[in-house]
Amino acid sequence: MKHRHHDDSETKPRPQTRPSATDALNALTASAMALPGLTGLAGSASADGPVEETTIDKEYSYYREDKLEPRKTVQPNERERMEIHSYQFRVTTPLTERSDLDIAGTLETLSGASPWFVLPDLAGDRDGRPVQVMSGATIDEDRGDLLVAGNYFFDQGKVSGSGGFSIENDYYSVNFGLGADRSLADKNTTLSIGVSTSLDWIEPTDCKDFNRVCSEDKQSVNVYAGISQILTRHSAIQSTVSFGYTTGFLSDPYKLAYIEDVGSAVSDSRPDDRKQFTWLTKYRHHVSGFNGTFHFDYKLYADDWEVNSHTFDLSWHQSLPWGFQLVPSFRYYSQSQAEFFENYYATARSDGLASSDYRLSPYGAITYGLKASWAYEDLIATSDWQLALSYERYESSAGKAFQRVDVENPGLVNFRVFAVRATVSF
Amino acid sequence: MNNELLQSVRRRVLALACSLVLASLAGAGCTTVKPWDRDMLSRPDMAFDSDPLETSRRNHIYNSKEATPPGGAGGGGGCGCN
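Structure tokens for the assembled complex are given below, as produced in the milestone run.
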């Protein structure tokens, strides 16, 4: 993507012999200014000026979860899980000499079944091993979201604003964000701060039939502060801390937790607020000899439900002749359990909390993926085109966790994602 | 390995990771790369978010399947997340 910039300091005399000067003038360091966009879509943040061209992305992706393994359930005919067909688009376009606009949306259809509650398997020598009970293939719904973000650039920084919403059959969410960047030290350093908020409402389907809540809401606010730093001609680092606070209905109305001594299941019930801390660091290093770039991201997370996690993301971006690029990637994730989580409860907790959701269980996960893309400049008139195909595989288990886990939650998920994308810039 | 040992290893890995980040940030304060020397840094694959559409897809999936939020400046829309 090409970017304008408005930095007068760039116009000072430079040695005429340097071939890189023109590039530097045209596209002042993606990394110098690249700060995380609000809600992750303001990719135009990756420069110190508005985008120069209009770019349209269109992507189709297919997400499919593996069937539950037979040993993890006592319902041999209820092993199917979710699949999602998703259509995404994104448009970035210059507005004025100092501003640009970023619009992104998703339409998707979700179908299948999800984990409902966990039972102890008391048959034979199973010794109370937890087994999953699924919801049955009852889920069939659509979701749409839209996010609009704008950036206004100053000589030494920018301000950004965003607003968006997400709508499902039973779930509504709106979100807003504000952010600001300030560059220092000849743009070797960029500081960034921001705040975002979201308001969510849920109206669970068949609430009366299943004794679910019929209407609930939650609110969250998130603040962040970050620093981006050029390290060398070939490397840059960015580190961002964020604090989130969510209050309201944080339980999952579609899940139950089994209480052994009373022989029945109760509604999933979690605390009514949550404080979250995230520290995300990204490192980029270009290796000229291989014409490739190494990406390394690490995220540390902790919250007051006592979940903490580590995420390592590695990828290698290999440029090839004729506009081809290959990107193999690997991700490792490990989380500890929420303090109140149990696969099932021997007896009810005195504070009334109960959740057997696999997402609050202790486990680890790996993702490996490959993306191949092909870019062609001036393919039709002066438009540039790019086609990309990608595949990712995610596998989670207790055995992959950083720490030792005694009993694995049977609801842990494995999935694959296939995506195809076309991009045009003009 | 017992849990205490694992905890201790985990704390050390974490301390090492934090030290590396802080050391590189501190060290970087002493170096400057002139604008005309930033040709490598301006490559699209050097961006901190080199594929925002892919990032938003991944964040959405991981946010609905794991306990950890995307982090960074991310915020944005919720979901029922079955």
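Residues 3-28 of chain B form the longest helix (26 residues). The mean pLDDT of chain B is 74. Further analysis is deferred to the final report.
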